[in-house]
């Protein structure tokens, strides 16, 4: 296999995302990536620093894109409507980009500063959505943790074919989020 002209780091990352989204993050290997790009495996090192670094890039990209999806979903919305939209967008991202979502949930290095920053950015975004609720910082962080647990749990169960009933999954998710949001509203009364 000859080196492909015009191949750059972004093309390699995009090919890796495609493999992850279609086959799962665990199926992403340098050999599979090289085969997809029709190049020899050692040629990948002209564009990436190895598989661990590539997985880190996918994790970071996933965090950024998940946040962007939530931001886009909440534009023009506030309070319960914004949090509902953010939760729906989170699960929609997991459906649309399952490999990138797996990369988020299987972070290669929890101590990596770039990944911590990208993750903290999502937490900050959610805390801003919670500001109108007048929660203490600690309470707001517990709410964010609960919110993430719900949407991640839903996305994970769905990904593992855990919802086999013929019932609208979006409606189930909506009802789950609305129930959680009602609990937040009780504290505001």
Automatic annotation (TrEMBL):
Signal peptide boundaries: none
Keywords tagged on the record: Transcription, Transcription regulation
Keyword Transcription regulation: yes
Superkingdom in the source lineage: Bacteria
Oxidoreductase in keyword set: no
InterPro entries for the chain: Homeodomain-like_sf (IPR009057), MT1864/Rv1816-like_C (IPR025996), Tet_transcr_reg_TetR-rel_C_sf (IPR036271)
Residue ranges annotated for the HTH-type transcriptional regulator MT1864/Rv1816-like C-terminal domain, each copy included: 83-179
Pfam families in UniProt: TetR_C_33 (PF13305)
Protein name (record): WHG domain-containing protein
Lineage: Bacteria, Bacillati, Bacillota, Bacilli, Bacillales
């Amino acid at each position: 296999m000859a080196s492909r002209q015009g191949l750059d780091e972004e093309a390699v990352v995009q090919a890796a995302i495609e493999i992850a989204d279609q086959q799962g993050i665990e199926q992403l290997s340098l050999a599979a990536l090289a085969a997809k790009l029709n190049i020899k495996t050692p040629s990948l090192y002209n564009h990436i620093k190895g598989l661990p670094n590539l997985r880190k890039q996918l994790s970071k990209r996933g965090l950024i894109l998940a946040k962007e999806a939530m931001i886009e979903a909440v534009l023009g919305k506030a309070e319960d409507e914004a949090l509902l939209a953010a939760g729906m967008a989170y699960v929609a991202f997991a459906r649309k980009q399952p490999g990138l979502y797996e990369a988020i949930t299987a972070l290669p290095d929890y101590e990596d500063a770039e990944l911590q920053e990208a993750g903290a950015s999502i937490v900050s975004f959610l805390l801003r959505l919670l500001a109108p609720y007048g929660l203490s910082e600690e309470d707001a962080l517990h709410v964010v943790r609960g919110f993430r647990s719900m949407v991640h749990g839903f996305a994970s169960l769905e990904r593992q074919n855990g919802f086999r009933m013929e019932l609208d999954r979006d409606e189930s998710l909506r009802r789950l989020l609305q129930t959680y949001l009602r609990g937040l509203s009780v504290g505001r009364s």
